[in-house]
UniProtKB/TrEMBL annotation:
The active site is at E343 (proton donor), H374, K503. The gene is pgi. SUPFAM superfamilies: SIS domain. This is Glucose-6-phosphate isomerase. Pfam families: PGI (PF00342).
Amino acid sequence: MTFNSLAGHWAEVQARRISDLFEDPDRADRFSTSAAEMLFDWSKTALDDKAVDLLLALAKDAGLEDRREAMFSGEKINETEGRAVLHTALRASTARKVFVDGEDVIPEVHKTLKRMRDFSSRLRSGQIRTPTGGRYTDVVNIGIGGSDLGPAMAVQALAPYHDGPKVHFVSNVDGAHIHDTLKGLNPANTLVIVASKTFTTIETMTNAKFARDWIAREVGEEAAGHQLVALSSNEEKTTEWGVSPERVFGFEDWVGGRYSMWGPIGLSLMIAIGANRFDEMLDGARAMDTHFRSAKGRENLPLMLALVGIWHHQICGYATRAVLPYEQRLARLPAYLQQLEMESNGKRVGMDGAALETVSGPVVWGEPGTNGQHAFYQLIHQGTAIVPCEFMVAKEGHEPDLAHQHRLLVANCLAQSQALMLGRSMEEAEARMAAAGFEGEERTRQAAHCVFPGNRPSTTLVYPKLTPRIFGQIVALYEHRVFVEGVVLGINSYDQWGVELGKELAVALEPVMAGDVSVDGLDGSTQQLVKHLT
Ligand code: F6P
């Protein structure tokens, strides 16, 4: 099966309106997937049975099932780096065995989880004291990309369960970030977690050094060392940094940075919500893993989420995808998904190194509703670019006394997908203008501005309540979506060479900025910018 057959089908059905597809009274049910504890309604898209069959065949022909088994069982599917891809092992039960290079990795995963549990519960209960005998009131996680976005998103998402010390996140090398975060914190009561898989990332190491010095100025060099924790797979570097081994939580190279919040990189979250809640999150993710591994065809939620995405981006040619959680606490989900999806699937060559025959992953963006409605939804409804919208909403909020607000939130979410699909015709717009007293040409002119073309696709993911378990399901769902898309495109979703060139050039430019190296030899624009900035 090829992309061409799908493109041919799209050309045939393109003129048809999505709303007309609901002449099939069972469409909503047949073009939805219920799995784990969620409902994914993809009926408000142009997909019909033939398109779904073609997409399923595309995934099958790409070898999805074998590839999926290869991932779960620890084969080295990250072929450019020669690594297994085993974030699923971080949430696997002790009953499972997963071998990498002949060794079962699950016992070590659980040993580390146990160390994290012990550490976080002793910190939360006050058993772990500061070097000066006080109680830790604040935790600062210093990391960037995958060592920041996951836990930062999760701490915000699970705020109703946050009963541990305050947790802060510093990622940007812009000094403003660490300055504003540390301002108001007491260095004597602050635990600094340095989260970096490689322990070489310049932003993180620069910020970590600043934080260590900030503490040392208050409590002295030696004591400052006791206020540091390292989350890393680079034992050599954490030792060089002088972090004592019992404060190092390690993980293997088969955990990709953007897939790492389930293990040590999630320590700040575990400190915030406690080990039991963290376990619930892992349980949720595990339920999604089991589902993804076993559900067939249309019943498979991550598969369908991925295929809908492929349909919209690779087949219909819509350049971007908006993720619109009607859940304020998922405010960081779009940023998290930008890394997850764009760092994974923003590639230009296939696994074999040959140029891709189709476009790679889409631009992902978004904001929580209803805020976005008062900003960029104008373009979504009436702009000339079509943006497939992925709505998400909970049946229930965490605040029973704010049930009215929640109803309004849900009503807004549903109204948006309705408006996108149904639109408003010129005739309807003219009738409104007539009722408002406009006549003749002016009525037509005014009406033209109030036409909504409609026929714009969207999906809606409904979940019961944003508990740790559901949150785990949602994140795992997106991870698996990225996996499916990568397999269908034939790319390696687990390397990220595209971030390297800029890093190398930044290292070379820093001494130029400092005036230690001449600007000669740089391109004219960069020379000019350096001169203006120094
Ligand atoms: O620069 C990209 C990247 O390598 C991401 O893939 C990663 O999540 C992030 O940097 C941080 O890396 P580390 O955890 O090694 O500091």
